[in-house]
Design goal:
five-stranded mixed beta sheet; globular; 29% strand; alpha/beta; 2 helices; Immunoglobulin-like
């Protein structure tokens, strides 16, 4: 029964996507314009103004903000919580002809990734699970010379892919507290 198998596969993919969306939250704070973009939801009043930390000849990408919690909405004056902030540390992931180098990276909370195109072939850096964009960040189509920066202010795993080769050109970043 090919239809039952296809339906089960689609249901499994939908379940994984739902779990990923719940874990990462909505993309409320994303900014599709060049310059800093939010990874994950932003608080109603962002923590400081996003800045373009990329060199003058390069584009900045994303700034991540924490998801608001009940404590953010009704803070306890006796317990001030420290908000995550950018550390200024930048790691580099090369966007090559056939993949990302390195394809996986563990970084501390607040660090940034510069995705640097090293090929004239057009690729994207799009957050999500192989071919299923989640809206957290997206570079749009680019080729060398180009740089796209994403700053992570929320812990957890972040998957990404290139839209033109979404099954073969994938990567992951784990942000640790």
């Amino acid at each position: 029964m090919p239809h039952a198998s296809t339906s089960a596969s689609i249901a499994a993919i939908a379940a994984v996507c739902s779990l990923f969306a719940v874990a990462c939250g909505p993309a409320d704070g994303t900014d599709a314009t060049p310059g800093p973009t939010t990874v994950g939801p932003s608080t109603p009043a962002p923590i400081g103004a996003p800045t373009n930390d990329a060199p003058a000849n390069e584009d900045a990408g994303s700034v991540a903000s924490p998801q608001p919690t009940a404590g953010d909405l009704d803070p306890d004056p006796d317990q001030a919580r420290e908000k995550p902030h950018a550390t200024g540390v930048v790691h580099v992931v090369q966007v090559g002809t056939d993949g990302f180098t390195p394809s996986s990276l563990d970084i501390p909370l607040g660090d940034s990734i510069d995705f640097v195109w090293a090929t004239s072939r057009v690729h994207t850096v799009t957050s999500g699970l192989e071919c299923l964009a989640d809206g957290m960040f997206a570079s749009g189509p680019r080729s060398a010379p180009s740089t796209y920066r994403v700053t992570f202010l929320r812990p957890g795993p972040f998957l990404y892919f290139s839209e033109d080769d979404c099954h073969g050109m994938v990567g992951s970043i784990v942000v640790e507290e």
